[in-house]
Amino acid sequence: MGNCSESMASTQEVTTAVDPINHTTINTNREFHNEESATYWLPKDEDEQKRLTGQHFGCKELFGGNVLNSIRDTLDFEKGISILDDMINDYPNCTYHGCDIVDVTNKVLEIKQFTYKHGNVVKGLPYADSMFDFVHMRFFVYALRKEEWPIAIKELIRVVKPGGMLQITEADPQLPKDSSSIVYTLTNTFNSIAISKGQNIEIAQELESLLSAHDNVKVVQSEDRRCNMSKSAKISS
Ligand SMILES: C[S@@+](CC[C@H](N)C(=O)[O-])C[C@H]1O[C@@H](n2cnc3c(N)ncnc32)[C@H](O)[C@@H]1O
């Protein structure tokens, strides 16, 4: 938190540099994406990658894996399928694709079965129809405007093979009861920023109906796991 307010305070004094090649804006000591139409407002630098790594393992623990049971039961990950996501350590036989408005792939590890492509899910993914057995999109609550969600979901469905699976994992940033807690202040601040950008902080609760609106989609599993971050690490389902 200390670092966060320090960098906010210094933003007015520092010139913003734009690097169109790397799709990056460098603002003070944090780096951001440079995709004009996108409302995503979290940084993309090394510190943020560390936070995302922590979030990744927290989420994996909460759900007992990266993939929901129904997907594990339906698709043959051992055989090797085509995936739009990044779970190489879990299923090394598969072919992986990653798509983002910034390239945050690890440049040190060269992973032969992984291909990154620049793309904006609202403008259209850079893939042919029905290309993937499994598509996973995660943590876009602070990335898409309310009206962009149906467009993004339609685009995700377009690239899934008939009989394939789509998983959307989303945070539901509800305020804790105790308004004196730091988690309350943090969540409230994040949500206020998101609302000011036209984003939908309740999207997690609306995903099922948005998906069900498509005739060619059947919702087979919907999971809600809560983690109380105000107290010591208690996990409940
Ligand atoms: C919270 S991060 C989640 C990253 C990763 N999916 C994970 O689960 O750790 C959200 C990511 O979405 C990307 N993003 C934001 N808006 C996007 C858009 N319109 N199209 C594609 N990617 C976008 C951001 O650059 C960022 O890398």
Automatic annotation (TrEMBL):
Domain of life of the source: Eukaryota
Segments forming domain Methyltransferase type: 94-166
CDD domains per record: AdoMet_MTases (cd02440)
InterPro entries attached to this UniProt entry: Methyltransf_11, SAM-dependent_MTases_sf
Signal peptide as annotated in the record: none
GO MF terms, alphabetically ordered: S-adenosylmethionine-dependent methyltransferase activity
SUPFAM superfamilies given in the database record: S-adenosyl-L-methionine-dependent methyltransferases (SSF53335)
Name of the featured protein: Methyltransferase type 11 domain-containing protein
